Structure formats: C-alpha cells, structure tokens
Amino acid sequence: xxxTYIALSLAVITTLGLTAxxxxxxxxxxxxxxxxxxxxxxxxxxxxxxxxVADSAETSLDWAGEYxxxxxxxxxxxxxxxxxxxxxxxxxxxxxxxxxGTGNEFKVKGTFSFDxxxxxxxxxxxxxxxxKFFVGENFVEARDKxxxxxxxxxxxxKLQKELH
Length: 164
Hints:
Elements: H1 2-21, H2 57-60, E1 65-71, E2 79-85, E3 90-97, E4 105-114, E5 121-124, E6 132-136, E7 139-143, E8 158-161
Antiparallel strand pairs: 1-2, 1-8, 2-3, 3-4, 4-5, 5-6, 6-7, 7-8
Pfam families: NlpE (PF04170)
Keywords: Signal
InterPro entries: Cu-R_lipoprotein_NlpE
C-alpha cells in the first residue's frame, strides 16, 4: 500500500511539474482585456499631454555638450572649431584659423533653435550668421545655411562630441 501511495504521489508531482514548465502548444494572439486609447473620442477626449511625442534629436539625443574638430580652410591649414551647446539652448562658438599667427580666434555666443520641419537641424542665431548644423549621436555636422541640406563635398565638416 505504501509503495502504491508513493508511486502515485510521484506521478502526480511529476505531471504537475512538467505541465507547469511546458508552453501551450498553440498560442493565440493575446488581447488585453482593457486597452487605453490615446485617440480622442467623444467619451474620452485626450489632452495634448496624452498624445505620443515624435522622436527627434531634441527629445531623443543627449545633444548638450562640447563639439570639437577642424574644418577645412581655403587659405590656412584649418579652422579649429569648438561649438558648445547648452541645455538652455544657448551656444558658444569658437573658431581659430591655424597657421595665421596671433589674433585669428573668433568667439561668438548666442541662442539656437531646432528646425520645425527637420528637428535634427539646429540654427544658430545672427551672431553666428544663422549657421545650421545636423545633430547626430555624439556629433554635429555643418549644413547649408539656406536649406539645411548636407554640403556637397568630400571635406569633413563634422565636430565630435567631447565625452567626459
């Protein structure tokens, strides 16, 4: 009797253990019992804070920081360039013309804004001649001042972010 009881107990425990570990053979698409909708309806008007925000360089990248590099120069060995973007949307742009002696450093400060049509582009204010830059992951790249399009050149107009 004891042997039968032990064997039966082991069979039940083994069956329960295997059943708990096995996945169901057919999986049906799960449908949650309650789904929140962000689409405004007459019964559930959505506020603007509930609507999803599109990803952009401004919202999805850590763009604030110092970017450094050397831009090409027609009559010198290069323009050592540093652009600091601050989280309050102000900037400092420093350019030093290499190989030209002293007094060839220019520094401007001002504000910038993200482009409405292409939120990966920033435009510096008039102090920096409304220059445009594409903001990427740990770099900025100078763009055409009028269109914001990439410059048609093989020369390097990228500044790399200084990672601390």
